[in-house]
Amino acid sequence: MSIIIFSGPIHSGKTTALLQWCNRQKNIYGILMPDINGSRKILDINTKEVFDIECTDLENTKEPVTTIGKFNFYTAAFKRGNSILINALTNNPDWLIIDEAGKLELDGKGFYDALSKITGVYLNKKNKSNLLITVRDSLCEEVILFLKLKEYRVINRLEELR
Fold first, then answer.
1. Neighbours of 109 (CB within 10 A)
2. At what angle do helices 75-88 and 112-123 cross, to 10 degrees?
3. Could you give the CA distance from residue 93 to residue 119 in angstroms, rounded to a whole number?
4. What pLDDT tens digit does each residue of the chain (162 aa) get?
């Protein structure tokens, strides 16, 4: 069991690198948030299903949105992402991926529900798999303190997992 923080600068290719790495793994679950055709999506790593999270037409949407900075995200997409993550625990994955923990989660929004539940399981050593959370470098210390992580490892390149 290990908790790994994959950290790097914003827009440095963390998600792209992680997607390539995930495609080479077995028994891997979780979510990635790639930019596809100019908008943020959620990718269910296990099923390969992709769905919208970023609302690019705020004026014409009828769905509730969560706003952070200049970005607007569908609130229902966060609920769905949280569900994917929490349900992944029942599959006993070798790897569980959360892309990413950031300002929304620090504010109790976004993937906060899944993140807090899952890190609780891993902190109590009730899981023998690996948890990997992406965090931008400018928020790394704050996220670690917020999640009350005691045993973890921070990496800046996925090659460090070998």
1. 16
2. 20
3. 14
4. 699 999 999 989 999 999 999 999 999 999 999 999 999 999 999 999 999 999 999 999 999 999 988 899 999 999 999 999 999 999 999 999 999 999 999 999 999 999 999 999 988 876 678 999 999 999 999 999 999 998 899 999 999 987
Backbone conformation region of residue 46, classed left if phi is above 0, alpha if psi is from -120 to 50, else beta: alpha
The pairing of strands 2-8 and 153-155 is parallel
Sign of the CA dihedral with 147 first, then 86, 55, and 108 last: negative
Whole-model pTM: value is 0.94
In contact, 83 and 96? CB cutoff 8 Å: no
Place of tokens 């992944």: 88
3-state class of 112 per DSSP? helix
Q: What end-to-end distance do the CA atoms of the chain give, in Å?
A: 15
